[in-house]
């Protein structure tokens, strides 16, 4: 009887005691999205500030109340339109009085932010649907402020559609592929100044200002396009095609830009006098609130001087009202943080005038009125100005570089409101009039929590709590991400995180993989929700760690810009110091430390293997191997030109190939329009001639993101196997 009792008790143990949690697999994040946190996307505030619209099922634009979440109506439903030629929408906008919808479908991606699509207009009052144009796909279509017209770009020319008459007319006629672009940026502007629309409507709908890009003298870069798959190019089955586009590399000729204003009534175009110097950048044009006054934002080629000019659109005369000079460079983030206020007297500028990123108010004559925020911390995003409450809203890393909070402050800085009650990463999206805002919060242990608040910060309701994901996570055996700091031999304190192997035993030594990006003003060490392949590696007995070196963000200008003119040197030094620090820990096997990264992180991997023998292996995905190969705007911002700074450019993986220690794995997409495949191919030759053994893999027709079909899954499986073999 006693034996039977023990037997029964033993059989019951697996259910009660030995129930095991799952371990993370590669498929969990490359295919299944097991730890992907859902969020709330595509909410567009309506004019009243108490309703919003959202695109649902790809065919409906629904209207909801912010306060209750109740549906207030359907703005538009493609399925309800008789004989509708369109089955789905990919994006939309309402005109100013919310009586018309401009939406697009059948988009074709061009580069990172640009695409062509079929645009349609739906009149909500008369229930009429019509194509924007029947003469080919369009780009960056937008309503005029009065809602009576739409501007768009097609085949490098700017067009105007008058809705009342249904007429389409060309504003420009000289657009030509790889030569002249009107109203849309060229490749390098789009990539590095982060926009895809290079025109702006005047508030009174009488004028359109646009930037013209003459890239005739910009040199072409080309790469072969094979048949491949996902997508398949059948026309290239036997003979690969060549894709050619204008790409100005460091020190080479840029497009010559000019600013023009089209008067709709007179159908005349006036060129704005932005000065005789043509080797400049015009990354934005934006009308002020005053009729006939256009704001023109200008950088010099070194990007260490930013000028705000006000153009008289009738005469073309431009006056520079504000200049910001910097010993290093003026970051491009100033562009979208600049706001002309509705009083027609002031503008907001977010800059580093006191060594940290802060909010300033200036008159339209260029006189400083106030510094809204102060302190040894950075404003990371400007959110806008509430006219009624006289408050400026912003996101900042005021408590820690690892966190983000949402605040509001008065112009004199005496009144400051914090809207963030939870420690981690917060960001906010305010309704028109700042009556409500949606807060997006997460930290290392909390998946994205989306909550709706009133303008005073009071919680109204929870929109998304990811409760299912929380429950799912509880079923997995995960190693917690722990933050830490350490000091380098030079006394520099760096931030990092570490994930230890599952079933960690402090008496054992473990191999360590360092994850990093390390690029200017970037951050990988943040208190946010992110479960990736570090958990898979932890389940396989590896430690994974990440350190943000000098040059990264949210720690003030001196920390952020100390890499100026010498990219790669300080960052690689800090990563090597981090590796030595890890190697000094009793539970890390100092002889088995690896490092990997993508893009700038790939560049950093190659630099680290050439600067030290502390790494046993490294994986460099889509790496820059010489900044002579990279684009002008990004590279010269940090390095100036090769002619001005030859020593800075010489300090690169290409010239250090013979010094590589440890096993190096190079991975690149053959159709990378950003960090060209040329970087890896030329580096390979240097490695070969230096007698360095390495490994390499190319992905057919893949761009800088390396995805499509099974590609991403294959990439991570290959990287994991490489780590298992070499670390």
TrEMBL record:
The organism's superkingdom is given as Bacteria
* A Pfam family annotated for this UniProt entry: Peptidase_S9
Q: Which InterPro entries match?
A: AB_hydrolase_fold, Pept_S9_AS, Peptidase_S9_cat, Peptidase_S9B_N, Serine_Prot_S9B/DPPIV
Signal sequence residues:
1-19
The Peptidase S9 prolyl oligopeptidase catalytic domain sits at 531-726
Protein name as annotated: S9 family peptidase
Say which species the protein is native to.
Carboxylicivirga linearis
State the UniProt keywords alphabetically.
Hydrolase, Protease, Signal
Record-annotated Dipeptidylpeptidase IV N-terminal domain positions = 96-448
């Amino acid at each position: 009887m006693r034996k039977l009792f023990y037997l029964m008790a033993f059989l019951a143990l697996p259910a009660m005691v030995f129930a095991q949690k799952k371990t993370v697999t590669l498929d969990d994040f490359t295919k299944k999205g097991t730890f992907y946190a859902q969020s709330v996307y595509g909410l567009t505030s309506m004019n009243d500030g108490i309703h919003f619209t959202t695109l649902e099922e790809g065919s409906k634009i629904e209207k909801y109340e912010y306060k209750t979440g109740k549906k207030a109506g359907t703005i538009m439903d493609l399925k309800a339109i008789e004989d509708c030629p369109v089955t789905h929408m990919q994006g939309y906008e309402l005109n100013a009085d919310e009586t018309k919808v401009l939406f697009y479908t059948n988009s074709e991606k061009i580069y990172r932010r640009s695409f062509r699509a079929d645009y349609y207009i739906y009149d909500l009052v008369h229930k009429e649907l019509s194509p924007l144009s029947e003469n080919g796909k369009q780009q960056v279509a937008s309503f005029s402020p009065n809602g009576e017209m739409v501007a768009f770009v097609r085949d490098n020319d700017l067009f105007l559609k008058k809705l009342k008459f249904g007429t389409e007319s060309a504003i420009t006629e000289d657009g030509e592929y790889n030569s002249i672009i009107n109203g849309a940026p060229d490749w390098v502007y789009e990539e590095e100044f982060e926009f895809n629309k290079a025109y702006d409507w005047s508030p009174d709908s009488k004028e359109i200002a646009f930037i013209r890009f003459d890239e005739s003298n910009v040199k072409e870069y080309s790469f072969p396009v094979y048949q491949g798959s996902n997508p398949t190019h059948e026309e290239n089955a036997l003979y690969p095609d060549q894709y050619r586009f204008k790409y100005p590399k460091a020190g080479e000729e840029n497009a010559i830009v000019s600013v023009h204003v089209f008067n709709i009534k007179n159908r005349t175009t006036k060129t704005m006098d932005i000065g005789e110097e043509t080797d400049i950048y015009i990354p934005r044009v934006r009308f002020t609130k005053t009729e006939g006054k256009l704001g023109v934002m200008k950088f010099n080629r070194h990007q260490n001087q930013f000028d705000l000019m006000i153009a008289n659109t009738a005469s073309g005369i431009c006056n520079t009202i504000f200049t910001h000079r910097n010993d290093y460079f003026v970051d491009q983030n100033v562009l979208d943080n600049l706001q002309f206020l509705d009083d027609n007297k002031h503008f907001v500028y977010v800059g580093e005038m006191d060594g940290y990123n802060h909010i300033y108010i200036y008159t339209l004559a260029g006189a400083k009125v106030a510094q809204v925020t102060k302190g040894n911390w950075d404003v990371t995003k400007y959110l806008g100005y509430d006219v009624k409450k006289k408050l400026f809203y912003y996101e900042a890393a005021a408590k820690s570089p690892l966190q983000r909070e949402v605040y509001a402050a008065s112009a004199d800085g005496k009144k400051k409101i914090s809207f963030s009650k939870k420690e981690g990463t917060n960001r906010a999206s305010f309704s028109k009039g700042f009556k409500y805002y949606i807060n997006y919060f997460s930290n290392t242990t909390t998946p994205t929590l989306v909550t709706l608040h009133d303008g005073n910060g009071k919680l109204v309701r929870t929109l998304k709590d990811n409760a299912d994901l929380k429950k799912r996570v509880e079923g997995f055996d995960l190693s917690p991400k722990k933050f830490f700091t350490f000091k380098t031999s030079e006394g520099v304190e760096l931030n990092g995180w570490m994930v230890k192997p599952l079933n960690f035993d402090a008496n054992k030594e473990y191999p360590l993989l360092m994850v990093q990006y390390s690029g200017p003003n970037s951050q990988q060490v943040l208190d946010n929700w992110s479960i990736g392949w570090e958990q898979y590696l932890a389940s396989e007995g590896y430690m994974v760690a990440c350190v943000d070196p000098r040059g990264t963000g949210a720690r003030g200008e001196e920390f952020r810009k100390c890499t100026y003119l010498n990219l790669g040197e300080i960052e690689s030094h800090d990563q090597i110091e981090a590796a030595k620090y890890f190697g000094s820990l009793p539970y890390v096997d100092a002889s088995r430390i690896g490092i990997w990264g993508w893009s700038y992180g790939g560049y950093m991997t190659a630099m680290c293997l050439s600067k030290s023998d502390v790494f046993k292996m490294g994986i460099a995905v889509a790496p820059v191997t010489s900044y002579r190969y990279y684009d002008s705007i990004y590279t010269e911002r940090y390095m100036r030109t090769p002619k001005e700074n030859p020593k800075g450019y010489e300090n690169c993986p290409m010239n250090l190939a013979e010094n590589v220690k440890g096993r190096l794995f190079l991975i690149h997409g053959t159709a990378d329009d950003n960090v060209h495949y040329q970087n890896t191919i030329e580096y390979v030759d240097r490695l070969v001639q230096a007698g360095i053994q390495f490994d390499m893999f190319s992905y057919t027709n893949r761009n800088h993101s390396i995805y499509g079909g099974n590609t991403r899954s294959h990439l991570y499986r290959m990287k994991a196997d490489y780590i298992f073999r070499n670390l």
